[in-house]
Amino acid sequence: MGINIGFILTTLLFLLFFFLGTGRNKRVLLISIIWLILISSLSLTGFFQNTNTIPPRFLIVLIGNITFIAFLYTKLKTVDLEYRYAMLVQALRVPVEITLYFLFLQKQVPEIMTFNGLNFDIIIGISALIFFILSQLFKVNLGKKTLMVWNIIGLLFLMNIVVIAILSAPLPIQQLSFQQPNIAVLSFPYILLPSFIVPIVILTHIISIKQLTKS
């Protein structure tokens, strides 16, 4: 129960920091809350745990993610991102990685999805926290090139674990981890990892890269 509550609080912090970092856009906040409520309500009924349907019900999450990202990007593409909040968004990848490790111990995700496997996201989370401390407390100028390379690496690391997670889930396209598949993301609250946290992290990286390119 404790790990569930912790993950829900982490998800809400993702929402808060993203909202603050992207200009406090109330429409973005409203759409995010509606999507969170919709996907949570579906998962609480056990909707996604039925993996035998054709097409897979998890497809709703994938299509929803693309729509969610595209919609928010159109509203935020001209926004000046506040980097202190962008760093806090990325720093939250640390508690997410800790959660994944505990889920592995509970046999709900495979080891390959943790920092003991092929998931390198914790590096981005820790470095984001370091960047936040350096820039906010010690007023260090991190430099455009450093931030650009860091954001690109962060995006690549995220795509890496997304692919691993999808191929480890008990879906028709499963290719990995048959002995201990990725079942956690089929139920609440962990459905919020692929359906909300991943899109928020992707958007934060994309907007950051766009802003650095423009500047």
From TrEMBL:
Chain ranges passing through the membrane: 6-22, 29-48, 54-73, 85-105, 117-135, 147-168, 188-209
Q: Domain of life of the organism in this record? A: Bacteria
Please provide the record's keywords in A-Z order. Answer: Membrane, Transmembrane, Transmembrane helix
> What is the name of this protein?
Uncharacterized protein
What does the organism's lineage look like at the top? Bacteria, Pseudomonadati, Bacteroidota, Cytophagia, Cytophagales
